[in-house]
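Summary for the funding panel

The consortium committed to producing paired sequence-structure records for every protein in the target list. Below we show the first two records in order, beginning with the earlier of the two.
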Amino acid sequence: MKELLRTLVALPGPCGFEQPVIRFLYERLKDNVDECYVDGVGDLIAIKKGAFPGPTLAVSAHTDEVGFIVKKIEASGLLRFEKLGGHDDRILLSQQVLVNSDNGQHPGVIGTISAHMVKFDDPKRLRNYRELYVDVGASDADEARAMGIRVGDCITYDQPMREAGSHRVYGHAFDDRAGCAMLVHALETIDFSKVHGTVIGIFSVQEEVGLRGAHAAASDLKPDVALAVDTTAVSDTPEGMMDRTLALGAGAGIKIMDSSLIAAKSVWRCLESLAEEKGIPYQTEIFTGIGTDAGALHMGNGGVPTGVISVPSRYAHSCVEMMDLGDYDASYRLLEAFILNMRDKEQFSFI
């Protein structure tokens, strides 16, 4: 999974511009599943049937990453931008980025003032992203256009996946290429001759701007139970607001509640029982600062019992998201155990 994640992180795919990721996943999966197609909004749907009758499980991982879009090319050649997804304006200054045009990628940097200018500025002032710009080295607008850059081109962080210590990695777009790699690995390696039921893999688009792809999928598919596999923000660093309820290295996250979902008790209790039975390290998650595709999936098909497997992550929505590979493995093992444990949809009924 680690090398697949490295490949997926290298593909540009912010909200609305997920085509390179969806294309790669389609080519990889089309011959390994029973049905594979892309819906009208861009979601990749990959369906694999087990050997025995059983419930239909939808598992969703979103393909989009937070990024930006070129809004204006200034006369100076500097690029104004709009956000795609949620960012903290405080971390944008001097970040290396890639402008993804029709004729290739163009490296650039989000500009900042020289440290020598700070004494002439208000050092406490936080610049809104609308005041910022991307510098691609063009001397004027004509040169920027000659490079192939146009209004509407997407911009991504220029940060490949790197190793950190012996068991951690960092990079951009782990949210949620980590979930995508998990879902691909499940569809490719689980022995479906032992599976009761059907797994619908949803590689969704535009999650970061309102769960839009998952809403489209939920209106069309009819699962009996659903899971989202996504990253979640840990609270184990020294900042004052951190409550130490989620930590890197403490195992897979089993969500109970977030801003988009109160998870079905039958689903999260099942995940807990499987983790304990299989010796999979886990931590429970109640965190209202986040939402996932599960928020859309549980509202489809007249209501679907839904849960979330969360991969713990530091520095979410930045260019240096960090994961522990032990947590990542635990999250995958929990997904695999859930799929192999399915027998009947009544396992997940409300009462």
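The next record, for a separate protein in the list, is shown here:
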Amino acid sequence: MSDSLPPAIEVRELRKLYGGKPAVDGLTLTVGQGCFFGFLGPNGAGKTTTIRMLMGLAPPTSGSISILGHSMPREAIAIKSRIGLVPDDTLLFDHLSGGEYIEFVGRMYGLGRGLSRQRTAELLDLFELNGAGRKLIGEYSKGMRKRVAMAAALIHRPSLYLLDEPFEGVDAVGARLMKEILLDQVRQGATIFLTSHVLEVVERLCDRVAIINQGRIVIEGSLDELRSGQETLEDLFVRVVGGPARSQDNLDWL
């Protein structure tokens, strides 16, 4: 990462309230360009809300967001043209085929019809979706939907990827393929902002991580900086977030 480049993501005192209660509460974070960044936390910690704000899909209650040197929401169009998104719920168009959807996304990002069609064919082949390219997305398994969402996120060669649980429901072969593609994108200078509950995957892929709990970052840095001794990322996660205490009174029959 060059020091002359603006951060891929820079947020300051970011807050999002729902019904007066904070889903994200004073988030301050900087992610440099060319980084593979893991954004971790328990269910309901504020990860998906944060990604929705970074994308401009949910306006923050307060605070500031800068993406690749552009201010959100003032320069939202410029920002969105440089982002690839794989949402947690993979909101795809169920009545399109995988190929039609990927080509549609390419056209939405301004690719010409011929180029969009060419890249769609190449992405279907890359993600081993040729046999399902004409099948309606509504008939896809969750893992296939994730592959299509990832392919669509790649078609315009974005500078920043926002990936919310991209490996959920994906089989081992598909997950390995997706990981290799993402690592190659980082080697080419892209930035990846990843949420995942599969901590072993995060441990293998990410340069830096932040752990969020109850809307606040509790720890952030490289894994070498954060881990104590022989700790795994799972050990670190449980240590800083906390887990349920076991006692003799907990289901004695077990």
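Regarding this second record: Residues 1-82+158-242 form a domain with the Rossmann fold fold (CATH 3.40.50.300). The chain has nine helices and ten strands.
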